[in-house]
Amino acid sequence: MTKEELFTQIKKKQSYLCVGLDTDIQKIPAHLRNTEDPVFEFNRRIIDATADLCVAYKPNIAFYEALGPKGWVSLEKTLNYIPEDIFTIADAKRGDIGNTSELYARAFFENLNFDSITVAPYMGEDSVKPFLLKTGKWVILLALTSNPGSADFQLLQTDDGTADYSRCLFENVLATSKAWASDEQLMYVVGATRPDFIQRVREIVPDHFLLVPGVGAQGGSLAEISRLGMNQHCGLLVNSSRNIIYAASGPDFAEQARSAALLVQQEMADYLNQYLG
Amino acid sequence: MTKEELFTQIKKKQSYLCVGLDTDIQKIPAHLRNTEDPVFEFNRRIIDATADLCVAYKPNIAFYEALGPKGWVSLEKTLNYIPEDIFTIADAKRGDIGNTSELYARAFFENLNFDSITVAPYMGEDSVKPFLLKTGKWVILLALTSNPGSADFQLLQTDDGTADYSRCLFENVLATSKAWASDEQLMYVVGATRPDFIQRVREIVPDHFLLVPGVGAQGGSLAEISRLGMNQHCGLLVNSSRNIIYAASGPDFAEQARSAALLVQQEMADYLNQYLG
């Protein structure tokens, strides 16, 4: 999917919501647990209930990997079920030396046909480049994550060539990596829990899309991230996982998920109207 | 496996060799390709041929993940086949927010019963801690990797609280993370391609084991890393993948792998004799 196609979907649906398919086998409603593939059955119902309200789905791969080989089958069925016009994100946070990253790219872009994958930057350019070789596929590089541990290294002051070392590591990651690919292939993870840094992110990467976790359960504000982070192509994919997919645990879980997604979508429509005009 | 048990194996086998099971389906000898599970059959023969010469096996997970669900079956069979007294490393380079890292820990420590997993440090403490909750299991944190891209961020000058910012990011990662667990649960990845930094590593973590990739195909020197990196418990696991498992591609590939491993082991015996006395 191209950047322009993604923006078209955002305008059409009046939404920049990404639904996180972090499907925990232990949280699946009881009435689905006896089906042949409870994880896929849960995802299918969530997708049916939310597909017109969101522009992206993001399965976190850990939830599937924890289930062994059958988790990969559930993941593959889920990917095949997601409508073509919805952007798909493998939240995998992979990254390895070049010849190995190529294999991860094959796993997520060829075998599973994801549109994008999240990648960790620590190992540098040759660990990221293999994911950029396929036209139409995206890398979403971790920059400033939403968890408390993001302060440990991402906020370290680093040498930016000036005398005052005012640039944090995540800013160096943005500034260095944006030379590796255009904003047609590269996005960044920037957590909603750090609104104080969004402007600094936008100074370095004004045109890139940002994948924003941390709204909802982790405490980030949709209003704030939208006000500070939106650009002329929206430039935001705001993720919500638990607040939507576990909105309820009874037989009506999918309807409740839809209601939760609708609330977010309506708020997003307001911000699109307000900031994009 | 405890640190003491690992050291016992090193002394017994006169080896600190880790064999990387980076089993590429396209490089498996022709005569194995028609077996039911060529990846496992290849691994089984490599293990039979090298188990008395090495103290660790390290499958890089990308090679298995690229094969879809059946890759995970091959990986599980391989893990079950590795003798109990050999340390096992899931080279996965995972790391995510806390509740998600817990799931990766379950995948590799419970489902697959690995002794250890490689973890990327970028997301900080709460992304690493879930891997440290199980007694007898190890985290091997990326510090200074062997690939060219390691220079992009790992060697950035960072604020170390002094006026001259003389500490690189990888040194900050070592200094910060060593408080998260003892050297009975935590090792570090330090590439053999950077011998100039080994002494700086040892100044910060004198007692930890280091997992050392980059000898052989990537150009690192076993002699140099052994001289500079060995401590009183050896403290090194030196990995070799391609040079051993693809020593030959014909019917005698396992014998040739053994010969290649034997050469490395004999060199290691010399260094153990020389530096441990």
TrEMBL record, chains A, B:
Q: Which residue range or ranges hold the Orotidine 5'-phosphate decarboxylase domain?
A: 16-257
Which BP terms does GO give this entry? Answer: 'de novo' pyrimidine nucleobase biosynthetic process; 'de novo' UMP biosynthetic process
Write out the GO MF terms.
orotidine-5'-phosphate decarboxylase activity
What Pfam families does the database record attribute to this sequence?
OMPdecase
Task: Report the pathway entry.
Answer: Pyrimidine metabolism; UMP biosynthesis via de novo pathway; UMP from orotate: step 2/2
User: EC?
Assistant: 4.1.1.23
Task: Answer whether the UniProt record assigns the keyword Transmembrane to this protein.
Answer: no
Active-site positions, per UniProt?
K93 (proton donor)
Q: Which reaction does it catalyse?
A: orotidine 5'-phosphate + H(+) = UMP + CO2
Q: Which CDD domains match?
A: OMP_decarboxylase_like
| Keywords from the named record | Decarboxylase, Lyase, Pyrimidine biosynthesis
Query: Which family does the UniProt entry place this protein in?
Result: Belongs to the OMP decarboxylase family. Type 2 subfamily.
UniProt-recorded name of the protein: Orotidine 5'-phosphate decarboxylase
